[in-house]
Amino acid sequence: PAATAPREADVPVPSAFRFFEEGSEDFRSGRRRVYVRHRYFGPADKQAVRAFFEREMPLARWRLVDSAALDGRYTLRFEKDAEVCLVTVSDAARGRGGPTMIDVRITPREAPDTPTARKTPP
Fold first, then answer.
1. Between 12 and which of 22, 56, 72, 122 could a Cys-Cys bridge form, CB atoms 3.0 to 4.6 Å apart?
2. pTM value?
């Protein structure tokens, strides 16, 4: 199940995970979210956590763009409106065993390249 009071209302986190303040930061300008990097630790299998985000993020209107696994680390990229949310699930310490760490990063989606202004012939 998801936590009942997540740090970001639209980013579900498994209920067994706890927010790690020293490894986290966020910035808002007025009511607009500019940047979020939140870290959580908890006792769960990484593949189960990956499946949790694949299932729960779309319920908060995030669209899964891509997902990757590399060296025991799972990375999922979601998009919603003008934002990108990158979720990384990994071991908290090198090797197996111990808690699982979740990093959630939310940034503005890059604007598409704007076409260069046409030059007027002389």
1. 56
2. 0.84
- Which residues are within 8 A (CB) of 71 and not within 5 positions of it... i.e. 6 or more apart? none
Contacts of 79 (CB under 8 A, 6+ apart): 62, 63, 65, 85, 109
30 in helix, strand or coil? Answer: coil
pLDDT digits (tens, 9 = 90+) for 53-101: 999 999 999 999 999 999 989 999 999 999 999 999 999 876 666 799 9
Distance (Å) of CA 57 to CA 4, 14, 22, 94, 118:
15, 11, 25, 27, 42
